[in-house]
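Handout, page 2. Input:
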Amino acid sequence: VRADERIDDLQLTLSEGGSLEVSVTDSSGAPVDGASLFIRDASGAPVEMLSMTTTNSRGIGIYSGLSEGEYQVSARTRSEASAEGALARVSAGATERVELTLESGTLLKVSMTDSEGAPVRAKLRVLDSGGREHAAYLSLTMVTSAMTSEGFSGSRQTIGPLPPGRYRIFA
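Output:
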């Protein structure tokens, strides 16, 4: 399609999607209400950067409309995170069940300054040992919290909570 070109009668056929039903519990086995779900495709790329899917009072969250394939599933609250990489195979029209357990996570708080100590705006990348990005993961809950408390800053960023592991940070 060229600039300012219009195509009429375009028909797209979408295949039927599948779903993930994710059960999230804490380390004692109790269901976790309000955990944000994060889904990555088989290559480790986030399906969505802003998670709007959370668990209910029974600790269940449903993520629908996924294409057939393998996905990595994780969950976070404000202070806990599940391990990365619970693998699920999604089939058209089917619901795959995944169980995650949250553990205490680490909040990574980074302030970026120049050699004089003045704040510097920078984009952070935080990669785990599998090369998966963590800095860009946000949930609606996290965004709302940041807007009502400290706000957003290009020179100060909070990432996480992160599950236990090794991470590389780039600015």
